[in-house]
């Protein structure tokens, strides 16, 4: 579906970051937890979404300290995607990064 996408690396990076966040910060990372990755392309927009089992904190793009070993994931997504956002609560949440543009698929 995205073989010729000119920003495939950014889409894959966003997918990786969103999955890692689901595993680290939500119930999806606990024993028996699960998550779903959904990628859609409508000819003008690629969206990558991770649907997790919710967690105690809201997803936030932060400025990590210079020597911090983590904390840059959503900030990286916010800088590479056209937009990103989330909806849900501590029972389940969807985090999505959108990439605008078109190409011949």
SSE topology sketch:
Layout: H1 8-25, E1 36-41, E2 45-52, H2 73-80, E3 83-89, E4 92-100
Antiparallel strand pairs: 1-2, 2-4, 3-4
Note down, in words, how this protein is organized:
With 105 residues, the protein is an alpha+beta fold. It has one domain (8-100): Heat Shock Protein 90, CATH 3.30.565.10. It contains 2 helices and 4 strands, in the order αββαββ. It has a 4-stranded antiparallel β-sheet with strand order 1-2-4-3, covered by helices on one side. β3 (83-89) and β4 (92-100) form a beta hairpin. α1 (8-25) runs antiparallel to α2. The radius of gyration is 14 Å and the shape is globular. The model has no long low-confidence stretch (mean pLDDT 90).
What characteristics describe this protein?
105 residues; alpha+beta; Heat Shock Protein 90; 4-stranded antiparallel beta sheet; 25% helix
Q: TL;DR of this structure?
A:
The chain is an alpha+beta fold. The protein has 2 helices and 4 strands, in the order H-E-E-H-E-E. Helix 1 runs antiparallel to helix 2.
Unreliable stretches: none
Task: Please list the strands of the largest sheet in the order they lie side by side.
Answer: 1-2-4-3
The ordered H/E elements are HEEHEE
Q: How many whole angstroms does the radius of gyration measure?
A: 14 Å
Number of strands: 4
Distance between the termini: 7 Å
Q: What is the CATH fold-level name?
A: Heat Shock Protein 90
Strand content: 25-35%
CATH class category label = Alpha Beta
Any idea what the CATH superfamily is called? Histidine kinase-like ATPase, C-terminal domain
Domains (count): 1
Main pleated sheet:
4 strands, antiparallel
Using the 3D structure, state the CATH architecture: 2-Layer Sandwich
Shape: globular
Tally of separate helices: 2
Mean pLDDT: 90
Portion of residues in helices?
10-25%
């Amino acid at each position: 579906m995205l073989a010729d996408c000119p920003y495939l690396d950014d889409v894959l990076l966003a997918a990786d970051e969103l999955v890692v966040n689901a595993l680290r910060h939500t119930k999806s990372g606990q024993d028996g937890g699960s998550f779903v990755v959904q990628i859609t392309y409508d000819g003008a927009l690629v969206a990558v979404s991770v649907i997790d089992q919710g967690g105690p904190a809201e997803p936030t793009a932060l400025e990590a300290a210079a020597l911090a070993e983590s904390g840059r994931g959503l900030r990286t997504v916010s800088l590479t995607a056209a937009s990103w956002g989330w909806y849900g609560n501590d029972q389940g949440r969807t985090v999505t990064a959108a990439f605008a543009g078109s190409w011949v698929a």
